[in-house]
């Protein structure tokens, strides 16, 4: 798994902090890591974006951002409104493949969900993953509504012949409600893929050293960690 695409079931669900956790766990195992952000939206030039946040939390990660658009919109819309060229799936694949020649793991973090449009043709992150032949990790919220959104995402991946190694909960609450607790068991059943971790809420506010020390404990062995779903059940 030299390239791993990271998508979410929506926005603001902990996708970037989950990407940082995967990077930190891989680095802790002695692997070299790169992070590719095809399209950064909603961030002005000169401001730190998602790549900078991953490096801040995880450490020595090679960073590459292909395009940046100032308005917080879908990449295709943001590119059009900014009068800038959109990102094309083949550009994402080429950049990731080049990084993969020099790193043990390349993390490709999308914007929003799997089928958010990159360009006017309707191309998406799924098209880039298909060109790469890369698995797609799904980040999902913990609570009510996540079962449907996660199942729709994994179904879309299967329909496109894309591998999904599993789901990571992007923000596990300090005091989980009934729905969140039940979703620990229900997410694998409804999505058809295993639960591969849960990043605690507020993890991004931890000192970077604490984040890096904690990350392996938030992720399953498939993601270079030590986490097990029974921890959440407990």
From TrEMBL:
It is found in: Cytoplasm. It holds the Pfam family AAA_26. The keyword ATP-binding applies. Its main location: cytoplasm. Pathway: Cofactor biosynthesis; biotin biosynthesis; biotin from 7,8-diaminononanoate: step 1/2. Keywords: ATP-binding, Biotin biosynthesis, Cytoplasm, Ligase, Magnesium, Metal-binding, Nucleotide-binding. ATP binds at residues 12-17, 50, 109-112, 170-171. It comes from the Bacteria. It is an enzyme of class 6 (ligase). The active site is at residue 37. Mg(2+) binds at residues 16, 50, 109. It catalyses: (7R,8S)-7,8-diammoniononanoate + CO2 + ATP = (4R,5S)-dethiobiotin + ADP + phosphate + 3 H(+). CDD domains: DTBS (cd03109). Its cofactor is Mg(2+). Substrate binds at residue 41. Its EC number is 6.3.3.3. The keyword ATP-binding applies. Belongs to the dethiobiotin synthetase family. Homodimer. Catalyzes a mechanistically unusual reaction, the ATP-dependent insertion of CO2 between the N7 and N8 nitrogen atoms of 7,8-diaminopelargonic acid (DAPA, also called 7,8-diammoniononanoate) to form a ureido ring. This is ATP-dependent dethiobiotin synthetase BioD.
């Amino acid at each position: 798994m030299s390239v791993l695409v990271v998508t979410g079931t929506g926005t603001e669900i902990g996708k970037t902090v989950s990407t940082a956790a995967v990077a930190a766990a891989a680095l802790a195992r002695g692997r070299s890591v790169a992070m590719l952000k095809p399209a950064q939206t909603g961030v002005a030039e000169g401001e730190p974006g998602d790549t900078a946040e991953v490096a801040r939390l995880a450490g020595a990660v090679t960073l590459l951002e292909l395009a940046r658009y100032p308005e917080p919109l879908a990449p295709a819309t943001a590119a059009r409104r900014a009068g800038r060229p959109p990102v094309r799936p083949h550009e994402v694949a080429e950049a990731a493949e080049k990084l993969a020649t020099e790193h043990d793991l390349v993390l490709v973090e999308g914007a929003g969900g799997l089928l958010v449009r990159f360009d006017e043709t309707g191309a998406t992150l799924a098209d880039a993953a298909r060109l790469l032949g890369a698995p797609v990790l799904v980040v999902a919220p913990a609570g009510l509504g996540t079962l449907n959104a996660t199942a729709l995402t994994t179904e879309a991946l299967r329909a496109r012949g894309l591998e999904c190694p599993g789901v990571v909960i992007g923000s596990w609450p300090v005091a989980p409600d009934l729905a969140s607790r039940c979703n620990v068991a229900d997410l694998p059943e409804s999505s058809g893929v295993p639960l591969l971790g849960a990043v605690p809420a507020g993890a991004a506010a931890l000192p970077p050293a604490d984040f890096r020390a904690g990350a392996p404990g938030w992720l399953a062995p498939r993601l270079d960690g030590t986490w097990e779903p029974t921890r959440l059940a407990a």
